[in-house]
Amino acid sequence: MQEYKIAVIPGDGTGPEVVAEGLKVLGAVSSKFGFNYKTTNYDFGGERYLKTGEVLPKEAIAELTKFDAIYLGAIGHPQVKPGILEKGILLTLRFALDQYINLRPIKLYDSRFCPLKDKNPEDIDFVVVRENSEGIYKGMGEFKEKGTANEVATQISYNTRKGVERCIRYAFEYTRKRNKRKKLTLCGKTNVLTYAWDLWQRVFNEVAAEYQDIETDYAHVDATTMWFVKNPEWFDVIVTDNIFGDIITDLGAMIQGGMGIAAGGNINPEGVSMFEPIGGSAPKYTGKNVINPLAAICALSMLLNQIGQTQAAESVEKASIQVAREKLKALAAGKMGYSTSQVGDLVVKNL
Ligand code: IPM
Ligand code: MN
Question: What's the pTM value of the predicted model, to 2 decimals?
């Protein structure tokens, strides 16, 4: 019988607490659906860095490629200068494992959780496909005359034909498979960023011709943030570049009820993918058993989907929705009416 190999990186802050609940759910759902798995823990994160000075051991990447999936808690430590761990662990893994898609479902589970007036679960149910390997995140740029009055800092958005095309193709395929409204919106900035978004728009139009069953649309990124608030029901799937995707998905998380529920997947369709709650390490809630584990549990559901356990994935998502709807007072840390571990238990009970 097949045994899935899952690498677990609990990471910093509340990461270990929420990952523990995810693993509790994994244990329960695996016996229910009859599959085996083995987890291997990696202690990457702020504590390890402070102790050893090392962010990622050099053999880590090669080792991680041997797994079926990676389950990540959170990266970011209050005693470590911003950027070191984020770049050294999270971005390095995304790039080195060529996880070129960042998939972020924006789904409202209950009207009570939505900060927008008169919006219901049927209005907020879309997915952002964020390019995850290029753009501004590539790290290209330079200082000129650093520290002088004439200093110039450039930061380049690097977009390759191949990189853009594989992302757009993934988005069209995803829209077709999702089979909801079959609408794909390109979110860009063709009116100002006339190199990068010219390429994106051309590739989008070319690939669209192969997908006659998919309705296409375009929205500038600034307008997209407006529509997220005003008419989120217009969206089905959105495809965008790395930085725009980063920004709009935080707004997306808020309209679906906050960081307590927002999950994401860093996907290499041909390799190893990594799933995470997108809320970060939340230092002020660490160790208090108050953080909402549902984002991590929903990330687990995405992981299960990716490794082919689609029924288990669906069961975990349904149980999470039910717990959120029927039990939780709110999704925010400390306001759920239950502790972190109680929410994990409730999901297990509802599987
Ligand atoms: C995210 C985060 C990361 C990003 C940071 C922590 C590097 O904000 O996953 O959206 O910018 O991609
Ligand atoms: Mn972000």
Answer: 0.97
